Backbone:
């Protein structure tokens, strides 16, 4: 069995954790910010500013949480957002509508687990600040990106469950695949898994400045729950919240492992990653 700790390398580029709320006022959030500021600071979010619109332009791919929420631009512009951030492009956004942890992964050594305690404490504060406070959905989205110059070797790295080289290279032999896009949704009780797979042809340059064709491969997985009654029970206290966040994260990791070949996983476990046929692994 492969554990996260076994993997020395990865190609994860972005993590987005979000809890949406109903029943909160700006004054409710203001009450708990003073309580949470030391918590965020101790976790490394040493910078702080207030926003009054959506100028941060957080993008939620694959229609994250859009099934029940249709906020207009004007609604977003009215939000009072408390923004905590660090030097690693990691952000916590807190408003009367949501709690967001947004992480850009640029170097090795990231850890979502490091922030589970902070998220659990924040959720507990949001739940307790008012009798009207109600978490209405929760989810984690992870975006993984690599680059290949030859689609015929894609199954050296990715399982045929997610990409099939025969389909990509031999379905129409006189043609070359330059774009592939697939979107699947699965449900188990109140849990929803959304799997987005994309291949896009483009141009890159090597160290000598010579241009060559490359294919961007994206695995974008979202795990979320929008059954309000379930969520209220699952996030009833700090401990329960942390356990449920870990459960969501574990589901994401299982999806990730199923998407990769055992040979690729073994390479990701090595101290030094030396396969130069695939780009974007850190």
Residues:
């Amino acid at each position: 069995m492969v554990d996260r700790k076994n993997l020395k390398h990865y190609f994860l580029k972005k993590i987005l954790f979000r809890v949406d709320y109903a029943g909160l006022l700006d004054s409710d959030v203001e009450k708990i910010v003073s309580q949470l500021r030391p918590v965020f600071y101790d976790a490394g979010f040493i910078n702080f500013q207030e926003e009054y619109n959506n100028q941060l332009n957080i993008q939620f791919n694959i229609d994250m949480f859009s099934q029940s929420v249709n906020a207009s631009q004007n609604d977003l512009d009215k939000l009072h957002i408390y923004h905590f951030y660090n030097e690693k492009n990691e952000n916590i956004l807190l408003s009367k509508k949501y709690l967001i942890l947004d992480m850009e992964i640029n170097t090795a050594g990231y850890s979502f687990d490091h922030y589970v305690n902070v998220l659990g404490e924040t959720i507990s504060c949001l739940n307790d600040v008012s009798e009207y406070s109600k978490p209405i959905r929760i989810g984690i989205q992870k975006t993984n990106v690599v680059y290949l110059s030859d689609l015929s070797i894609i199954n050296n790295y990715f399982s045929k469950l997610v990409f099939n080289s025969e389909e990509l290279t031999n379905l129409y032999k006189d043609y070359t695949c330059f774009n592939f896009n697939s979107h699947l949704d699965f449900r188990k009780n109140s849990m929803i898994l959304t799997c987005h797979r994309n291949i896009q042809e483009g141009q890159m340059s090597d160290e000598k400045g010579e241009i060559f064709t490359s294919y961007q491969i994206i695995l974008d997985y979202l795990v979320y729950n929008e059954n309000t009654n379930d969520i209220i029970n699952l996030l009833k206290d700090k401990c329960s919240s942390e356990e449920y966040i870990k459960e969501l994260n574990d589901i994401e990791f299982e999806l990730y492992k199923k998407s990769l070949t055992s040979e690729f996983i073994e390479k990701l476990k090595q101290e030094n990653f030396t396969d130069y046929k695939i780009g974007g692994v850190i």
